[in-house]
Write a sequence for this structure.
């Protein structure tokens, strides 16, 4: 198994250089000068074109240090004790406050502190930790400015990864249009074609894309009762009553919606937790696709309209690019992982850059038995050449993309990514008109809007997974995946670009 990318993708950008420096670097030496941002951006773009995903482990010490010098010098440091093996499989069992784990953390922080003091910086350990001490997982954000420290840490077996947290690629095109293409609600399309929905009882609009996956057939068996879906995204709007006071309305009853935020702004003493309110609109739309009520106000209904909902605001937009966003996504995954009622995690967010911080969160939630559905990627003008993005590229996630309708050969939607990491697809776009997508909730109105891309496909498939869990109490994650796979359009022959194809929800549920 193996996520949507949009907006002004400013994620990380730095690469290590091969040289080792002395404890006190010679700033006059050409190699001790940071590599330019332009050169790093070119290198990263080339790496993604060749490999699909950019990994910080592929670059040199000098390049990594340059990334810090070109941004805020904050690095993600994943650590482990001596002799630790297969941490991906055991990370949920680790007690980082045990003596052994505290000792290695102290050793690493002391090493960083010594390196900073060698440069004449009068720091304390607290000055090194912009997000504070780690709480659950063995990873921390650390300020490092000494290039020798970068080299020392990367030589240590106790260091799993060392990555730039905050280096971001500058905007390559118009910010406003990219935010719109990425799902942020700058100019929602409320002009819904009458052929793109059916009005069903008591008074809701069912999106046309449900029919291609036989969602109505699945509803004869279950509507998602007693299953909790966690949407990790940009939050849920305070003003969308169908995800608030009207979450239980019409044919939707006896369920709950809970809203959290793990997204912070700032660092050190001025760091503050942002509200769960969705300022982008993307998270509200995704929550609507998966769980919107079958109500009475004429809005759009979700796939699992009797499932419970947990919304976690972890990002500002759909691109996981800042240090606070990576930390927020990790913490959201821990939150969902620790909830026994959560069966499905939907992530219509991502980046073409691998992040150890986010990966640790994926490992944690996966090891807790969660089905993690992730978007393969949604493009705008300067990202169309990317393949399946991270974390959909991970084997622990179920990667989903969107395709067009029609009886001919399968075609990805205009802005969707595909590739060998894709597991399933959802019809999301009209072949005759690429502006006609699935319909879902908007931020603050009872009028539904269009939304497409692999983001929308992901949230819809997350809803189907919830239906399967609901109708089969006690089923395992692998059992859910197997039901989706064996009842998909390409089974038993997996496609190179579209995985197992379109899921027949009714057959998978029953």
């Amino acid at each position: 198994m193996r996520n949507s990318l949009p907006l002004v993708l400013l994620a990380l950008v730095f690469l290590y250089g091969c040289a080792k420096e002395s404890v006190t670097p010679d700033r006059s030496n050409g190699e001790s000068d940071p590599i330019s941002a332009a050169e790093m951006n070119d290198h990263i773009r080339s790496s993604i074109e060749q490999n699909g995903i950019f990994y910080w482990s592929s670059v040199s010490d000098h390049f990594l240090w340059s990334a810090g010098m070109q941004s805020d010098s904050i690095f993600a440091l994943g650590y482990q004790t001596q002799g630790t093996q297969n941490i991906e499989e055991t990370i949920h069992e680790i007690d980082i406050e045990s003596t052994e784990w505290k000792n290695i953390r102290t050793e690493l922080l002391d090493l960083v502190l010594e390196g900073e003091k060698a440069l004449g910086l009068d720091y304390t350990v607290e000055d090194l930790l912009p997000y504070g001490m780690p709480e659950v997982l063995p990873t921390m954000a650390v300020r490092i400015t000494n290039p020798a420290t970068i080299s020392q840490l990367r030589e240590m077996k106790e260091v799993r990864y060392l990555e730039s947290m905050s280096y971001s690629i500058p905007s390559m095109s118009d910010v406003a249009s990219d935010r719109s293409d990425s799902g942020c609600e700058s100019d929602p399309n409320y002009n819904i074609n009458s052929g793109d929905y059916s009005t069903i009882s008591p008074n809701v609009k069912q999106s046309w894309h449900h029919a291609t996956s036989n969602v109505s057939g699945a509803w004869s068996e279950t509507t998602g009762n007693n299953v909790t879906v966690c949407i990790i995204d940009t939050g849920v709007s305070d003003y969308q009553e169908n995800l608030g006071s009207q979450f239980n309305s019409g044919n939707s009853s006896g369920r709950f919606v809970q809203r959290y935020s793990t997204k912070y702004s700032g660092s050190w003493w001025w760091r503050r937790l942002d509200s769960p309110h969705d300022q982008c609109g993307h998270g509200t739309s995704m929550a609507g696709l998966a769980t919107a009520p079958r109500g009475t106000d004429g809005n759009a209904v979700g796939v699992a309209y009797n499932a419970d909902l947990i919304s976690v605001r972890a990002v500002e937009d759909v691109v996981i690019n800042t240090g606070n966003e990576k930390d927020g996504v990790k913490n959201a995954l821990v939150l969902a992982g620790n909830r026994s009622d959560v069966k499905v995690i939907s992530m219509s967010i991502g980046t073409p850059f691998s992040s150890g911080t986010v990966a640790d969160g994926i490992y944690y939630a996966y090891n807790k038995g969660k089905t993690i559905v992730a978007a393969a990627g949604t493009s705008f003008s300067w990202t169309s050449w990317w393949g399946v993005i991270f974390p959909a590229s991970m084997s622990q996630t179920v990667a989903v993309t969107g395709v067009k309708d029609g009886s001919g050969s399968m075609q990805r939607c205009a802005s969707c990514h595909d590739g060998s990491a894709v597991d399933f697809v959802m019809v999301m776009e009209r072949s005759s008109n690429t502006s006609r997508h699935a319909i879902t909730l908007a931020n603050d109105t009872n009028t539904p809007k269009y939304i497409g891309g692999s983001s929308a496909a992901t949230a819809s498939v997350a809803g189907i997974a919830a239906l399967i869990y609901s109708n089969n109490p006690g089923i395992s994650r692998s059992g859910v995946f197997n039901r989706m796979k064996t009842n998909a359009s390409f089974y038993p022959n997996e496609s190179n670009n579209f995985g197992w194809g379109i899921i027949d929800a009714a057959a998978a549920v029953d």
Observations:
- The radius of gyration is 23 Å.
- Confidence is low (pLDDT under 50) at residues 2-30, 171-181.
- The domain at 175-332+342-350+373-509 is CATH 3.40.50.200 (Rossmann fold).
- The CA atoms of residues 4 and 377 lie 4 Å apart.
